[in-house]
Design goal:
The chain is of the alpha+beta class and 66 residues long. Helix content is 48%, strand content 15%. A hairpin with a 2-residue loop joins strand 1 and strand 2.
Length: 66
């Protein structure tokens, strides 16, 4: 999160509440996927990563392409 400039106000209380609600929902869904053994895709500035025990690998992708 970018810090507000000294002459700017920070996020509103509504924005902070919405952010917290979204974070809680995502955390809950990721925990559910982990418990079910499903993988999820984590996206960063450097690309995406498949996380979880059943996440496809490059070897699996090549086999499926055949």
């Amino acid at each position: 999160m970018v810090a507000p400039q000294p002459n700017q106000r920070g996020p509103s209380q509504e924005a902070l509440a919405a952010r917290e609600a979204l974070k809680t929902a995502v955390d809950k869904e990721l925990d559910k996927k982990r418990k079910l053994g499903h993988y999820y895709v984590w996206v960063t500035d450097h690309g995406s990563e498949l996380i979880g025990p059943d996440a496809p690998t490059e070897a699996n992708d090549e086999e499926q392409a055949r």
